[in-house]
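INFO  loader      accepted 1 record
INFO  loader      residues=314
INFO  predictor   begin
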Amino acid sequence: MFPFLITSLLVVVIGSLLFPFFRKTEITLILGQEALINEEQVNLKIERRTIAASLSELEVDFEQGRLTSSDYDQTRLGFEHRLLEVLDCLKVLDKTVEAQQKSIQKESTSPSTGKNWISLILLALLIGGGATGGYEFVLWKLDSLSVSPGPAGGMVGDPQINPEEMVARLEGKLKENPNDLQGQMMIGRSYMAMGRWDDAERAWTKVLELDPRNYTAHYRLGEIMLSNPKTGTREEAEEALGHFDKALVSVPQDASILWARGIVLVQLGRTFEADEAWTEAYQYIPRNTDSSEMVKQSLQDLRAGKMSPPVPSQ
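INFO  predictor   done
INFO  writer      dumping tokens
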């Protein structure tokens, strides 16, 4: 008698647990799925904003001389790589929600038990994939924090990222949505790091089309004209100077932009203004750093008349 009671109790409990999955309506299940998907979307959107803010802070730190070029490139690639993964996940979730809505519209009466199980499996895969992505992101953050000089003077913990693959993926996304401001800024930086100056110029020009007051785009376009001039004319130098001046409206104490502005002024023969720009830049750079010493030496050379590059042609 006792085994019979135990068996009956187990059947009742298991039946109660499984009953929702065999009901003739999937409204409750759909609502549960939507809640989980909405929560995942919110988390991913928060992470997307956090990464975008981190990229902006990273840009400021680099332009103010707080990061070396290698540290900047490595950290930026890591952030951008993760941002692409987040965008991929959001795209999958959007398609999942769209498919669910279509399913509800078509089958608002009595879905089959098989479809309930398929939905459960898809939901499990979705949650598992999200958890895996979050786990990998945490591991990457821990790896980036543990980067330190190795015994042979090298660096350990460098993330293995293929820049060309990342750029190719981003190019595909921008073909679908060319008005993605953050995406255009990301690919503009990547093009510059790869020496693809024409592509970089197009990307930053698109950024200004989307956000005419974007100081980073003005600075980068001026930098491209300065480091990779197409004509070498005075007009081109004046255009680069105009970009630097517009950037300084938003960030008047940016040492990197002031330094670049001074270089153009020297090229134009306006050495007094170049002296002013470099003197101001020197005030915003931490003392006893390579950057501060470089600006200090350049000021000394400029004042001694040792710095007189040819003025761009008309």
